[in-house]
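Exercise 3.2. Students should predict the tertiary structure of the chain below and write it as structure tokens, then compare their answer with the key that follows.

Predict this chain's 3D structure.
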Amino acid sequence: MRLLKEEIGEPRELVFLDLEGTQLSHETIAIGACKYFCGPDLLPLPGKKIQVFKRLIKPQSPVGGVVTVLTGITDDRLKTEGITFHKALVELMTFTKCTGKKVYITFGNQDLNMLYQSKVRANDQLCQDFYDHIKRNWFDMQAFVSRFVHDERHMTFSQPKLLEIYEAKNLQHAHDPLYDAENLMNLFIQVIKRPDITLREFKKNLLTSKDFFIISKPFIDDLCNGKDVSSKDFNKAIEDYLS
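Answer key:
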């Protein structure tokens, strides 16, 4: 997908991140990630294994009852299985270490906010530097897809709903950060492989799209100048724009 490539650039590695956080302070309590080396089409390179990462993290604040119900993560579990935020980032840095450009992909900006809240409390230069590195190389998949695929009120769809729309594999286990990161990867790959779905969904709410004027302006100019335009040409322009 041309627009996706234009926004992401030409990375050597893609890292898909998902985090869970405390109910009130939004500190990170779990990080899940998966990554792959990609080619110019942003798809996994053949023969290269997709790698995964998951860590539980001790926060400074209580997890909160709602989060425990959703994730199954308790304060007691974090006391015995969790590591410090600093150590988790060191291990994540090691996991993502490679030569060449990398891009960190999340679904929405809440994951970045949880990283921010934890790095502020850690008051640690390494955490600050790695947070800055992620933010500089960050891509929000939710913001990108919602430009083209949304409901009639222009509301964004959830990740599970987009997995359904794009006929992508859903590993279930919602609110497990590793499964959610892998589901995000599955969605990303399917968006690239199924431009026909993006085209179909985009046409449903074309008039409310922020991209409508970009596509339609040349046709409006032609009509104003007395030239004929056809639905075939207009549909071709939409396909070309999304290709």
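Discussion points: The chain has twelve helices and five strands. The beta strands are 13-21, 28-37, 51-56, 102-106, 138-140.
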